[in-house]
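Lab notebook page, bench 4
Experiment: in silico fold of construct C2
Operator: M.H.
Input chain length: 175 residues
Purpose: comparison with the prior construct
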Amino acid sequence: MKVFRYPVKSVLGDYVRAGIGLSVGLGVLVSVPSSPVILLVFGGLSAVFGVFGLRTVRRHVTEISVGDTGIRSQGLGTQVLPWHDLETLKLRYYGSRRQRARGDGEGFMQLTLRGAGASFTLESSVDGFEYIAWRAAKAARDNRVSLDPTSAGNLLDLGVDADVEQSAPDPRASD
């Protein structure tokens, strides 16, 4: 079983953004005389950045375990998805076409796995992302899960051909 986490450097920027957003929102709420508009705008801003901060903490403390029988996410809660129950695999790229064409790393990928009542969404900043995507693609192939063209193309961009048996990538080689 291989264990992966989101490295501090991948969540540090999100912590900073959440902190700044909360500071601005709460700072205005505390220092400016209250009105319905101020409460709505800056209360809403504080709530959004507070939720964003909590999501960042959740990602940071999450540990993803990948083995021959399935994938498990353990952090603030635990989810388990046996590979034989995988029903959905989606791999999306978020970023501009220019970023993708340049390969400058500014965009990110998001892997969504579903089955057996469990749902996982992992971002490409997690250690071992290529290995996790490879293992999920192998399970999808074994389960005869059809992939949409976007997911199949994004897997190919990672060097994973979902239609062909391949050897596992180095789990430590993720960026």
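Observations: The first strand starts at residue 2 and ends at 5. The chain is about 45% helix and 20% strand.
Next step: discuss at group meeting.
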